[in-house]
Amino acid sequence: xxxxxxxxxxxxxxxxxxxxxxxxxxxxxxxxxxxxxxxxxxxxxxxxxxxxxxxxxxxxxxxxxxxxxxxxxxxxxxxxxxxxxxxxxxxxxxxxxxxxxxxxxxxxxxxxxxxxxxxxxxxxxxxxxxxxxxxxxxxxxxxxxxxxxxxxxxxxxxxxxxxxxxxxxxxxxxxxxxxxxxxxxxxxxxxxxxxxxxxxxxxxxxxxxxxxxxxxxxxxxxxxxxxxxxxxxxxxxxxxxxxxxxxxxxxxxxxxxxxxxxxxxxxxxxxxxxxxxxxxxxxxxxxxxxxxxxxxxxxxxxxxxxxxxxxxxxxxxxxxxxxxxxxxxxxxxxxxxxxxxxxxxxxxxxxxxxxxxxxxxxxxxxxxx
Length: 369
Prior knowledge:
Elements: E1 21-30, E2 36-43, E3 47-55, E4 61-68, E5 72-78, E6 81-87, E7 92-98, E8 106-109, H1 112-140, H2 145-169, H3 189-202, H4 207-226, E9 239-241, E10 248-250, E11 258-264, H5 269-285, E12 290-296, H6 301-310, E13 318-319, H7 328-332, E14 340-344, E15 350-353, H8 357-368
Helix pairs in contact: 1-2, 3-4, 5-8
């Protein structure tokens, strides 16, 4: 449950050309040990790029008009303290705070997105501190692991509730970029994609957002490639008994044709309701180089044969080991529900998976029309 706090992180340093903007930043921070503020961005590997310097007077007041290379997310840095700022063209942001405890006492005026971002950063930092403390405590005394994990599980659920609330209150806002640091794009793909889409809508000129989008798209492409049934991969070959229980056929026997591998069963209501449309598509494209290989998850031979006849599944390629859910081909293809389909090209490479009739016809039109 280790979560790394990413304050503001661009995926690449520079890269995309953007329009320059001007902003006004003013306010006062009293009691600070330093009179210098830096307006910066944090890049990969903790590389900080400073864009401007603001000097406070003896009372801690400052007032600057700053030229920036783009609308984006920035940090106003005072020593080791970071204030999150969403900077749009002509932003007029006022900041007032206690330099001795800026994390707790900082008031931002003129940028509601920056206010929301900093509030969530405190929540995120608090959870990270508890998580780090828990890990350290377990390392020091492993016998407390069970009780500490139980405590942290409650804290985790509490944090997830706060995260959900933050996202709900700030839809399409630039502030939600911080949520990307605590949503795992591989395990919570839909949630991560939702945040990405909202950021594209709410802050499209942000190079940070554009780079997050590129990184997410690359990750999704890699995940698709690494799937056992990933697009472009060769479909796993198999050999299985046909209806006469004597003849065997291989998937590779159909090489040279576009093949729909159709996992179904006589007892599967959705499969049977889908069959008339599949039959119609088969009849339309069979003379153009399309065929179907049906893999049944039946256990009863006679029920399987009767369903084939009743639904007029006239293609000859019907196989099954009559193993039901324990069918070795269905396990090889990681089938968890039926109907399930895999469309492969003439070379046996996967085009798409889990296509219903309408989507199947769309793909076949691309191939044959």
